User: Which sequence fits this backbone?
């Protein structure tokens, strides 16, 4: 199949679907301009997509993307790379311990957590309510005080500039909200390490983790805006600065929780940036952003890799 560069949409040499799309539709905030989106469903397509400057987009739940979009191609994992096989691997599972088949990096995390609960498999229930994809959640070891992604990982398949690598958590320097995986590496698939538990017990733990979210706004948002500086709640500082309920354009500092900026409908990235700047100006202490800006304050676009370096499928 050859690329048709006459139209906006085309199929790449390896058959990846490529479309010029507004990125707003892929983010939980609902803002972001256009970019060339590559929907890749196998390793060969991924290698082709990674041969030019790229960004990898997961659930878009930690991103504020500029109104002008981004110049790099944006990779989305789809097809088999967004499917899950939760069948216990007989060779790796034993007793109450289970190791699943492959779960694609593009799989939505909330649906996965619900499915694991129904099957009576625990270890990932602490991540309930995180609207990420598996790959994005693994990349930053997303979690709550009730548990994090690395509680349930057995094996990770990662696309790197040096080829596809299959590693275990012990091979990585992971820690709090950090997998130790470099930025331009893509988590393509993982195998989960789980524990057989009564479904009602898993549900009880999910309910506990969910209860902690009660005060969070239900509107479109990329989650918490700032990290808590030195043990003080960023939300409290923003509230004390009198900014709760402040609106710029169609973006609002949520009345429910001041560390959340929400989209009232039709907000732009410029509206959100104006609120972030205002908060930083009014709150007396330096605040570090929780979410990522695309293109960033420090532009973090990936370096190109040679497709030939790792076009072969593993195993
Ligand atoms: C309502 C709400 C609640 C939230 N609650 C929590 C919470 O309790 N705990 C928590 O930790 N986070 C929370 N978040 C933040 C967010 O969900 C996490 O940061 C999550 O890890 C982002 O994953 P994503 O797939 O959405 O990634 P994206 O937002 O799409 O991308 C974020 C970063 O991950 C990279 N990335 C995406 N996919 C991959 C991949 N396959 N391989 C390598 N890198 C990748 C991107 O390039 C980017 O750098 C919340 C967000 C929202 C909107």
Assistant:
């Amino acid at each position: 199949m050859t690329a048709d560069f006459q139209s906006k949409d085309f199929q790449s040499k390896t058959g990846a679907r490529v479309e010029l799309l507004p990125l707003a539709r892929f983010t939980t905030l609902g803002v972001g301009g256009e970019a060339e989106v590559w929907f890749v469903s196998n390793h060969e397509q991924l290698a082709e997509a990674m041969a030019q400057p790229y960004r990898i987009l997961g659930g878009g739940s930690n991103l504020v993307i500029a109104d002008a979009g981004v110049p790099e191609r944006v990779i989305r994992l789809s097809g088999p790379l967004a499917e899950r096989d939760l069948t216990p691997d007989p060779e790796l599972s034993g007793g109450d311990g289970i190791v699943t088949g492959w779960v694609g990096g593009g799989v939505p995390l909330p649906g996965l957590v619900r499915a694991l609960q129904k099957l009576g498999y625990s270890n990932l229930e602490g991540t309930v309510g995180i609207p990420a994809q598996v790959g994005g959640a693994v990349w930053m070891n997303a979690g709550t005080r009730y548990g994090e992604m690395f509680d349930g990982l057995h094996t990770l398949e990662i696309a790197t500039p040096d080829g596809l690598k299959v590693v275990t958590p012990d091979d990585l320097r992971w820690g709090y909200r950090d997998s130790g995986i470099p930025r331009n590496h893509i988590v393509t698939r993982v195998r989960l390490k789980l524990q057989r538990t009564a479904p009602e017990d898993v549900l009880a733990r999910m309910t506990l983790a969910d209860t902690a979210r009660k005060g969070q706004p239900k509107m479109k948002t990329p989650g918490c805006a700032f990290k808590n500086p030195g043990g003080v709640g960023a939300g409290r500082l923003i509230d004390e600065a009198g900014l709760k309920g402040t609106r710029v354009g169609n973006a609002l500092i949520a009345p429910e929780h001041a560390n959340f900026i929400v989209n009232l409908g039709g907000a732009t990235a410029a509206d959100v940036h104006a609120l972030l700047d205002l908060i930083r100006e009014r709150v007396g202490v330096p605040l570090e952003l929780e979410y990522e800006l695309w293109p960033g304050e420090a532009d973090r676009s990936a370096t190109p890799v040679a497709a030939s370096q790792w076009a072969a499928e593993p195993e």
Remarks:
- Helices lie at 43-49, 109-119, 134-139, 199-211, 234-240, 269-282.
